[in-house]
């Protein structure tokens, strides 16, 4: 798969896991759900794993992928000056 098609496929995979945040899925299962070929999805999944967007549990064809929930902090520093 060429790089021009990789980004939309990465987005499609990311959105699937964001919309189904507790899903645990294999490469074959995800390909079936998205209507894609496993060999097309594999590089996209590996890239998302390298970015820590997805977690890969296990190896090879039996590996399971799941969404890594982002850590959100809401720290706000407020400094009051006395006048």
The name CATH uses for the topology is Arc Repressor Mutant, subunit A
Note the main sheet. Answer: 3 strands, antiparallel
Order of helices and strands: HEHHEE
**Total domains:** 1
CATH superfamily: Winged helix-like DNA-binding domain superfamily/Winged helix DNA-binding domain
DSSP E strands, number: 3
Contiguous helical run count: 3
**Based on helices, strands and strand pairing, what is the structural class?**
alpha+beta
Binned, the helix content reads: 40-55%
Rg calculated over all Cα atoms: 17 Å
The parts where pLDDT drops under 50 for at least 5 residues are none
Strand content: 5-15%
Give the name of the CATH architecture. Answer: Orthogonal Bundle
Description of the structure:
The chain contains 3 helices and 3 strands. Helix 1 packs across helix 3. It is α+β, with helices and mostly antiparallel strands and 83 residues long. 46% of the residues lie in helices and 12% in strands. The protein has one domain (3-67): Orthogonal Bundle (Arc Repressor Mutant, subunit A). The radius of gyration is 17 Å and the shape is elongated. Strands 1-3-2 form a 3-stranded antiparallel beta sheet.
